[in-house]
Fold:
Amino acid sequence: MIKKIYIYFINIVVINLIKILVFLKNKIRRIRKIEFEYFSGKFKLYHNKYYFIIFGKDKFISRETYINGPHDYHLFKKSNIMLNKKISYLIDVGSNLGTFCIPPIKDGLLKKCIAIEPIKKIYDILNINITLNEVSDKIITYDYVISDKLKERLSVSINKNNFGDNKFRVNSKKKDKFKIVKLNHFIKRFNLKRLLIKIDVQGFEDKVLISGNKFILKKVPLIIEFDTNFMKKKNSKKITILLKKNYKYLSVLDNKYPKKDKIENFEKLFINSGKTRHFNCLIF
Structure:
């Protein structure tokens, strides 16, 4: 009898100790940082309101998510405030692990989403994360490459330390197996007046934008992570004209307090970008 009571109290102590450790990990950023950097395996589980399977060797999206929470959700929140209108639908081009699209769906800020991620090992984890967060009925996933030419030969370079930095290139010699569609392929899926499109494609944004010209003509708001070499791309001038003709404003979302600027200043974004490799911009 005494032994059973002893075991009972030991179990209570262990359970409460685990709860305290989980609480401290969720509340203290430095603990999460040390744990990720020194105790990461192949995968880790982030859990603090949202569930995310993340990659232990990924030093950017996974690391930032584990330490600070879904690493790009703040871009959606800032955009949602600046747009000052009801957004119900999202097309997320370059979804990665789902840190941008899953939280607003789970929080009830969006009704439906199309999530596009062409890298298979990331696409598989994206779908697991969608299931873990119980939003499978609201997010449809596709493992497509979005581009302006459906039959071009593409290759991809994988960054093993940054799973958000996988780059697609047109390659005349090598061709990896990807299904290519234009962004316009999805033009009839949602009410365009309540749609937001997010594009994060590591230097491929000119091809995505050209392939989605119908959305631009309908003035669908865009969140784009621009590579600072964007203005050197073949389609950059054509895209710049399209954006200036159909939108009124832009805002750099990386700023702590983003300000609304006129679309006429689009080129200045790249002149003033300094040494940064990329920046996030809302166009509306």
The two ends are 71 Å apart (CA to CA). The chain is about 35% helix and 20% strand. The chain has a mean pLDDT of 88. Residues 2-27 form the longest helix (26 residues).
